[in-house]
């Protein structure tokens, strides 16, 4: 419960960053476009903060928090397995094995197994979250594709300027459709059937090593910190909230940098494939996505929005661990008081 609570708090605080990051990851810009002046819709924001303000200005707070409800469900579900490793470690200590804390190898194995089960069960949730986060972006791309087709048709058929102008104004007036969890689910099913809810499952399964690396680094650093604190026997032995924050940040930073390209591939597979309007930038599967990204956009496409992701994921992980540890301490204090009363 503490892990789920920490994850939910961290998700709410950092969700606007996650929304912006997903849009950055799914933005297609072909190599040939890089040497020309980008259009307003493809020109990258000067900074993540500016990008957030742009989304807020055009779509309001709802745009920044699109897909939050299913995301919170997925976050809570993703925290469900960690206590199992701790319970096994405590049981081993009672048998005289270990010091009561999971070792590096234990964390790696348990996190990998738990992560694989978690991915298979929760992938449909994250497909819907990605769709909801990128819905406005996809709708805008579709309108732009229609404009380009209209302009080409006008130049070829000699369409009257007034008629062309009216049609362009009509396209500009189109507002994004209402888009909630149900609408996203229907769209995914209509496009690809039941299998559509497991799009991006291959890179996501490979990315199981992300939480494994994260928890391995986190638990190792925390164990060293506790050992050092106990050895010097000066001051309180409890780990402070700020120390937890910093340890969590370092752990998530290492995990994020090593697995980010897979995250970009996953997001692109789960986003609406009509985005961009160019078949060379639309993907039928993981291998197809990797090949086309390298061929048409270059290796740099695998690291789009990485700075935003580092800020979001590191801050979210730090808050998660900090809140979790504080909730555990609070529960322990209340539990001890309750026992005394009894």
Automatic annotation (TrEMBL):
Membrane-spanning segments: 104-126, 201-221, 242-263
Basic and acidic residues biased stretches: 25-36
Mapped Solcar repeat ranges: 1-92, 102-224, 239-330
Keywords of the record: Membrane, Repeat, Transmembrane, Transmembrane helix, Transport
Keyword Translocase: no
Region feature Disordered, mapped onto this chain: 23-43
Pfam families: Mito_carr
InterPro entries named in the record: MCP_dom_sf, MCP_transmembrane, SLC25A32-like
Cell location: Membrane
Bilayer topology term: Multi-pass membrane protein
Family listed: Belongs to the mitochondrial carrier (TC 2.A.29) family.
Protein name in the entry: Peroxisomal nicotinamide adenine dinucleotide carrier-like protein
């Amino acid at each position: 419960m503490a892990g789920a609570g920490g994850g939910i708090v961290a998700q709410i605080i950092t969700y606007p960053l996650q929304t912006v990051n997903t849009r950055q990851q799914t933005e297609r810009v072909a190599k040939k476009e890089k040497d020309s002046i980008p259009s307003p819709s493809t020109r990258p924001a000067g900074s993540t903060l500016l990008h957030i303000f742009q989304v807020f200005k055009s779509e309001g707070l709802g745009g920044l928090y699109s897909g939050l409800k299913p995301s919170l469900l997925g976050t809570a579900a993703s925290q469900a397995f960690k206590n199992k490793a701790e319970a096994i470690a405590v049981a081993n200590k009672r048998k005289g094995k270990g010091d009561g804390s999971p070792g590096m190898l234990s964390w790696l194995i348990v996190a990998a197994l738990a992560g694989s089960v978690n991915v298979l069960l929760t992938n449909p949730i994250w497909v819907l979250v990605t769709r909801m986060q990128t819905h406005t972006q996809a709708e805008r791309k579709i309108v732009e594709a229609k404009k380009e087709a209209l302009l080409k048709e006008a130049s070829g058929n000699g369409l009257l300027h007034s008629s062309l102008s009216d049609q362009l104004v009509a396209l500009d007036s189109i507002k994004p459709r209402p888009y909630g969890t149900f609408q996203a689910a229907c769209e995914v099913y209509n496009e690809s059937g039941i299998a559509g809810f497991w799009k991006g499952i291959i890179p996501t399964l490979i990315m199981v090593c992300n939480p494994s690396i994260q928890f391995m680094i986190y638990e190792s650093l925390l164990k060293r910190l506790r050992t050092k604190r106990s050895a010097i026997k000066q001051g309180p032995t409890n780990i402070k909230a700020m120390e937890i924050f910093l340890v969590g940040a370092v752990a998530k930073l290492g995990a994020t940098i090593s697995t980010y390209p897979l995250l970009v591939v996953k997001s692109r597979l789960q986003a609406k494939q009509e985005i961009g309007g160019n078949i060379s930038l639309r993907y039928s599967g993981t291998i197809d996505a990797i090949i086309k990204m390298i061929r048409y956009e270059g290796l740099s496409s695998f690291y789009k929005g990485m700075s935003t992701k580092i800020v979001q994921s590191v801050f979210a992980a730090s808050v998660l661990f900090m809140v979790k540890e504080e909730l555990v301490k609070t529960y322990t204090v209340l539990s001890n008081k309750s026992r005394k009363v009894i």
